[in-house]
Amino acid sequence: MLGRSGLSRTGSFRPENLGQNALHMIGNLCFTIFVIAVLVFTIIAATYEPEDPLFHPSTKITTFLTSTSNATFQSDNTVVRTGEDFMAANQTAFATFINVTDVVEIKEASTDETSSSGSGCEGDSKGPLDCKDLEVFHLMMKEAIERFKDIHFYRFGKPAPGPEENTCDMAWRFRPKEGKTAAFYKDYRRFVINRSENCTLSVVSIGDYHSGVNARKKKKKNQKPGFEKTSGTPEQAVVALPVVGETVNDSLPVVESENAFSRGKYLIYVGGGDRCKSMNHYLWSFLCALGEAQYLNRTLVMDLTLCLSSIYTSSNQDEEGKDFRFYFDFEHLKEAASVLDHEQFWQDWSKWQKKDGLSLHLVEDFRVTPMKLSEVKDSLIMRKFGSAEPDNYWYRVCEGETESVVQRPWHLVWKSRRLMDIVSAIASRLNWDYDSVHIVRGEKARNKDLWPNLAQDTSPDALISTLQNKIEDGRNVYIATNEPDTSFFDPLKDKYSTHFVDEYKDLWDENSEWYSETKQLNKGVPVEFDGYMRVSVDTEVFLRGKKQIETFNELTNDCKDGINTCNAAAS
């Protein structure tokens, strides 16, 4: 009786209410499933790790670096990713480029101001050209914008007189219209200008990339450019961007005085097993040391000499005596962080250590964390690494609990601007209007066990068939490849204008800017354009193509790391 009265009070199980209750239950169940699905998706999105190993936690990197298997990292000679690769392109800052209409407007305004003073040409149309004349400047800007349609201009420097009376040199800052990298470029070219009998000016020709050497001078601080379009929002300029093409000043920093040296706090890493490893390995360890120095608020004492791994050398042997500045932008590093060359440091230390009572704190165990060293007062902390690998790798310092405290300062290390200038020169010769294809062959194409289809899929006939729906006929196509015999790709010339890195050897031969500057940097000894530099330039030119077609996933179904590894690479 009591049970029946309870049920009758609720009335929820009466026959006439069953349909309504069922609808409520189904609705609640669907909502619950939706909420769970959203939570699962959110968790997956938050914990997803990209394929690139440099984005993985340091424990995964450690496993990657110390693996004894035939993982591709062990023999991979691809280019390391550096700070500028991780910078998001500020599209708002890049939107303030100079149009032809901007030049016309300033020309009309300046004409009104100077109309009463005359043109300066009256009765002397054959006299020397005044490159500082505003009319000349406006003509050069207008002609450059109209001539180079695939780039955006952001700043024009004031013209400088050329070697002939009818020539003027002018520099400008630009970036490709479809550029994907967060960087600016600088070019300076020579203009040949004709002046008719009635004083009308016209541009006869514009020289090649970097032909206007008289306009090359690096802009001094607080010096106003010839013409720059401002956005009116100064916060856009907070993040420094690489400017490829500027004069490079990578001289070694020096301590101003004994007093300044004695007041400083320093960190140095000594020994270890990182030498002659891949560039990925080197950078991962170096950034650990740099990160610890920043955490401890100390100057990093660094060895600028590198050992280039045999995977990058023509001799197939490890090569000592390389310079950090051959591969990375030391000017940016020394301006953005506190670093000293170890040779200069030890000279100063030997002079003033005893005199000023400077003390040294020695650390011989990588498990001593930076957090435990934060209270050390000694002038120099020296981390000394032993001979047993992998515990003598520098990056071990940044593992474990340190990983969440010490952050690797990727933004401090950029690629060498000298190498990037070669990249810019190649792209400029192609008018920044080309598509690019990365074709992997070499050892992988010969290994049919791991890459059974690669050789056939990258053969000329297969490439022509695959690319016909991806790239229009007649286009400039830059091919980045490890195939030593580029004539292998000759059949593609029937459809495309093909280009390879070796076509541009004049950019690093003995008559080039790169050759003379690196020779001077290397104390008068010529520097070889080694395998890493070549691959670096090849890769970066590829990345600036309007269309970029990769080997794996686009030219072949083989996995990048060998058979049955496609899913593993994404995990």
How many β-strands, per DSSP? Answer: 18
- Largest β sheet strand count, sense and barrel closure: 7 strands, mixed
Computed structural class: alpha/beta
**Relative strand content:** 15-25%
Q: Number of helical runs?
A: 20
Mean pLDDT: 84
Oligomer: single chain
| Overall helicity | 25-40%
Which spans of ≥5 residues are poorly predicted at pLDDT below 50? 1-13, 45-61, 63-76, 114-119, 233-238
Organism: Hibiscus sabdariffa
Keywords: Membrane, Transmembrane, Transmembrane helix
Protein name: O-fucosyltransferase family protein
Pfam families: DUF7074, DUF7075
Question: Could you give the topology of this structure?
Answer:
Layout: H1 2-10, H2 18-47, H3 58-66, H4 72-75, H5 91-94, H6 100-114, H7 134-147, E1 151-156, E2 160-161, E3 167-176, E4 184-195, E5 201-206, E6 227-228, E7 243-244, H8 258-263, E8 266-271, H9 279-295, E9 299-302, E10 305-308, E11 319-323, H10 324-327, H11 330-336, E12 339-341, H12 342-356, E13 360-363, H13 370-373, E14 380-385, H14 417-429, E15 435-439, H15 442-446, H16 454-457, H17 460-467, E16 476-481, E17 497-499, H18 513-521, H19 531-543, E18 548-549, H20 566-570
Parallel strand pairs: 4-7, 8-9, 8-14, 9-12, 13-14, 15-16, 15-18, 16-17
Antiparallel strand pairs: 1-3, 1-6, 2-3, 3-4, 4-5, 10-11
Helix pairs in contact: 6-7, 14-19
Task: Note down, in words, how this protein is organized.
The protein has 20 helices and 18 strands. The protein is an alpha/beta fold. The strands form 4 sheets. Strands 1, 2, 3, 4, 5, 6 and 7 form a 7-stranded mixed sheet that branches. The chain has a 5-stranded parallel sheet with strand order 12-9-8-14-13. A hairpin with a 5-residue loop joins strand 2 and strand 3 (167-176). Helix 6 (100-114) runs antiparallel to helix 7 (134-147).
